[in-house]
Amino acid sequence: MKVGKCEFILFFILLKVLNFRVQSAMTMKQIQNTMDVIRNACSSKYPNLDPDIRDNVKNGKFVDDNKDLKCYTLCVAEMAGTTNRKKQLDVPKILQQINTMLPVEMREPAKAVVEVCKNVKESYKDLCDRAYFTTKCAYETDPVIFIFP
């Protein structure tokens, strides 16, 4: 079978695209930079949220009666691209983000967290509560891979 120049170029482009997709995961430095942007944007929406309360979430210290913290977690989910148009957590979007953004070694543990926590939202009507308690579940399920701005 003779391969023409056009077919060869298309094949070469396809290989480049596939190679890019395989290597398109973010580095931890890039993830941290993205978290900084999200933190700054969401913090400005909740100026009354105590920065210590916000920052302690990274260490598993959740304040369950703080509405601003709960809505901050929803803002984070929205900015991370893990919600639908109705501001509800969207499991397929979350899994897509895991597959495209996280380093390979974090993907399976992150998917396991999603599996454990995906139905937490069903226990809450308020969108902020849904995001907050799902975030809390994620930390409690695997604090080692938990990333939060």
Describe what this molecule looks like in 3D.
This protein has 149 residues and is mainly α. It is built from 7 helices and no strands. The protein is globular, with a radius of gyration of 19 Å. The longest helix is centred in the N-terminal third of the chain and has 18 residues.
Low-confidence stretches: 6-22
Q: How many strands, what sense, and barrel or not for the largest sheet?
A: none
In terms of quaternary structure, the protein is: single chain
Radius of gyration (Å): 19 Å
Mean pLDDT, nearest integer? 87
Distance between the termini: 55 Å
Order of helices and strands: HHHHHHH
In helices, the fraction of residues equals: 55-70%
General shape: globular
Estimated share of beta-strand residues: under 5%
Q: Which structural class do you get from the secondary structure elements? A: mainly alpha
Question: Count of helices?
Answer: 7
Count every beta strand, where a strand is a DSSP E run of 2 or more residues. Answer: 0
Q: Which helices and strands, and how do they pair?
A:
Elements: H1 5-22, H2 28-45, H3 51-56, H4 67-79, H5 91-101, H6 104-117, H7 127-141
Helix pairs in contact: 2-4, 4-7, 5-6, 6-7
